[in-house]
Amino acid sequence: MRGFLLNRLLQSLVLLVIVSIIGFGILNLLPGGPLAQFGLDPGMTQQDIERLKGLLGLDRPIWIQYLDWAWRLVRGDWGHSFRDGAPVLDVIGSHLFATLLLMGSSTVIAISIGAWIGIRGATRRYSLFDYLATVGAMVALSVPTFWFGLVGIYVFSLKLGWLPAGNMSEIGDASILGYLHHLILPSIVLSLVHVAIWSRYMRTATLDAISQDFVKTARAKGLSERRILMKHVVGNALLPMITLAGMQLPSVLTGALVTETVFTWPGMGRLFLDSLGYSDYPVVMGLLMFSAILVLLGNLIADIVVAIVDPRIRLA
Amino acid sequence: MTALTANAAPSRWSNNRAARRFMRHRLALLGLAMIIFLSLACVLGPHLLPYDSLYIDLRARFAPPLTGYHFLGTDPLGRDVAARLLMAGRISLLVGFFAMVLSTLIGTLVGVIAGYRGGWVGATLMRTVDGFLSFPSIFLLLALAAALKPSPVMITVIIALTSWMEVARIVEAEVRSLREREFVLAGRMLGLSGTHIMFREILPNAMGPIIVASTLTVARAILMEAYISFLGYGIQPPLPSWGNMLNGAQQYLGSAPWLAIIPGAAITIAVTSFNFIGDGLRDALDVRDDHI
Question: B41, B114, B123, B199: most buried by Cβ count inside 10 Å?
Answer without folding.
Answer: B114
